[in-house]
């Protein structure tokens, strides 16, 4: 087995930080044991899961949701990456900074995907990277893109796909949501209420509303 357990290095914090890993394809049932596979991942801290996905607008692709319940994927496992001493508000501030780099229209399956985001977020929160096997397929694909399954280019998170074009109805919905979290929008609006157990994604309420609920990985 090549998916070795990575020892957790303590960074002195008291709040655990987890990487929640999901299967993108049933082939992972075999590939996982070889240290390969196609995975989606999210970072869980303070009871919230943060992830990154694609859309066609120049706004952030970072979104938050219910831990271990990312719609469209099959949850595989949760890995403790380390600990952090950041409060919930400081974590949101860290995500806000990452949002400047991880725009929805900058998503790339090989060079800037959900696992790249999780790696940066985990290093920022704990000082520890994510296990290499989680994003190994992207690193191999950087040198040999032909090995990446074509169907992964339209893998879904929620109702949105990674495609060159989306239907006009979807464009209107995405544009509406993007405008709602633009710098000119009011940050005093109350966040959406979400019933526990629901798999829908929701925006992060913060001083500068850069986090949106549009995501595809």
UniProtKB/TrEMBL annotation:
Residues 15-152 form the PPPDE domain. It comes from the Eukaryota. InterPro entries: PPPDE_dom, PPPDE_sf. Residues 179-190 have a biased composition (Low complexity). Pfam families: Peptidase_C97. Signal peptide: none annotated. Keywords: Hydrolase, Protease. GO terms for molecular function: peptidase activity. SMART domains: DUF862. GO terms for biological process: proteolysis. PROSITE patterns: PPPDE. Residues 201-217 have a biased composition (Polar residues). Residues 177-217 are annotated as: Disordered. Belongs to the DeSI family. This is PPPDE domain-containing protein. It comes from Penstemon smallii. The lineage of its organism: Eukaryota, Viridiplantae, Streptophyta, Embryophyta, Tracheophyta.
């Amino acid at each position: 087995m090549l998916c070795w357990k990575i020892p957790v290095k303590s960074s002195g914090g008291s709040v655990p930080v987890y990487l929640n890993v999901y299967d993108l394809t049933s082939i992972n049932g075999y590939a996982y044991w070889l240290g390969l596979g196609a995975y989606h991942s999210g970072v869980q801290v303070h009871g919230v899961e943060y992830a990154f996905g694609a859309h066609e607008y120049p706004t952030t692709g970072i979104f938050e949701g219910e831990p271990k319940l990312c719609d469209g994927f099959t949850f595989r496992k949760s890995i403790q990456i380390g600990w952090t001493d950041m409060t919930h508000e400081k974590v949101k501030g860290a995500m806000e900074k990452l949002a400047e780099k991880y725009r929805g229209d900058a998503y790339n399956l090989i060079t800037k995907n959900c696992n790249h985001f999780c790696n940066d977020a985990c290093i920022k929160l704990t000082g520890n990277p994510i296990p290499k096997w989680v994003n190994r397929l992207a690193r191999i694909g950087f040198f040999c893109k032909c090995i990446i399954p074509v169907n992964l280019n339209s893998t879904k998170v929620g109702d949105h796909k990674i495609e060159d074009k989306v239907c006009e109805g979807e464009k209107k919905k995405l544009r509406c949501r993007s405008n709602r979290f633009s710098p000119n929008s009011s940050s005093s609006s109350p966040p959406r209420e979400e019933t526990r157990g629901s798999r829908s994604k929701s925006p992060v309420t913060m001083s500068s509303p850069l986090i949106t609920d549009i995501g595809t990985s």
